[in-house]
Amino acid sequence: MDTPPSPRPSLIGVVDWIERHLDEPLTFDAIADRSGLSPYHFSRLFTARMGRSVMAHLRGRRLVKAGQRLVADPDARLIDLAFDCGFESQEAFTRAFRRVFGVAPGRFRQGFALTPIEGQYPMTMPAPDVAAAVTLLPERVAIPAFFVAGPSNRFVASTKAEIPHLWSRLIGALPFDGQVDSWATYGVVSAADRSDGSFDYIAGVEVVDGASVPDGFTVMPIPAARYAVFRIILNGGPVHPQVKAAMAAVWGELIPASGLTVADSPDFERYDGKFAPTKPGATIDFHVPVAA
């Protein structure tokens, strides 16, 4: 009797297999072969479910693991981490590390929180057909004027996936002089152009008026306003796709159904100092300015 063929590993199984072989020289074809699908179909499936390409996921998970080793082992050599991550030189590893974490490995080793990066490069997949829950809180909130400082850029629909890099740059600079005594962070959207979908985005922290901020940072005044607050409850999967879907629900469904009139002022996501993006149930409060 012929032996029945082995079942194809699930996509979850492939992700788990990648995690267990991060220190080995993996190629896209070798990973795709684990799925039993053609490279083309596997690539499309993986990107759709994980929100990034196969090799971007592999590089991100290797760099997260390198960051964990830097914190846990003060004697770990950068050249060893570079080779373990699949880089051909320490210089290439340092450049990639800085792009993801916002700081060089040496600065990272002095003390750095891994949680935000784990949120960008989680090893787990989002639960099937489960999106972040989003609800409009019943009370409106009046907030006095304040200032936010951090890296900023203008984005369009095709470049929004690069927003996490602003957060890496911000986190790498914290804390700095002039930052208020709080670890709350803000993702502020302003100057939105509905005709082409472009907008300005700043990943920042609250600062005192007149603060001297790190080079390349923008200081944005947030005027006093009354806000409707939409609470986003994450499911533990990749953060960016969940926030994207939640924003579509806020602007496409919840605001039109609420009868609220949106005011001409920046809106922002607020993350408290204990935000853990990979923990199911973590919350983001999205503040939308509304007319009184």
Question: What descriptors fit this protein?
Answer:
10 strands; alpha+beta; 292 residues; 21% strand; disordered N terminus; ten-stranded antiparallel beta sheet
Tell me about this structure.
This protein has helices spanning 11-20, 28-35, 39-50, 54-72, 78-84, 90-101, 105-109, 115-120, 163-173, 239-258; strands at 133-136, 141-143, 146-150, 152-155, 185-193, 198-207, 218-222, 225-233, 267-271, 283-289. The chain is α+β, with helices and mostly antiparallel strands and 292 residues long. Helix 5 (78-84) packs across helix 6. The longest helix has 20 residues, at 239-258. Mean pLDDT is 84; it is low at 1-8.
Q: Can you give me a brief rundown of this structure?
A:
The protein has 292 residues and is an alpha+beta fold. Helix content is 38%, strand content 21%. The longest helix is centred in the C-terminal third of the chain and has 20 residues.
Question: Tally of extended strands?
Answer: 10
Q: What kind of sheet is the major sheet?
A: 10 strands, antiparallel
Please tell me the overall pLDDT: 84
Structural class by helix and strand composition: alpha+beta
Annotation field: number of helices: 10
Radius of gyration: 21 Å
The poorly predicted ranges are 1-8
- From the N-terminal CA to the C-terminal CA, the straight-line distance is 77 Å
Identify the quaternary structure here: single chain
Q: What portion of residues belong to β-strands?
A: 15-25%
Estimate the helix proportion, in percent: 25-40%
Q: What order do the SSEs take from the amino end to the carboxyl end, as H and E?
A: HHHHHHHHEEEEHEEEEHEE
- Morphology call: globular
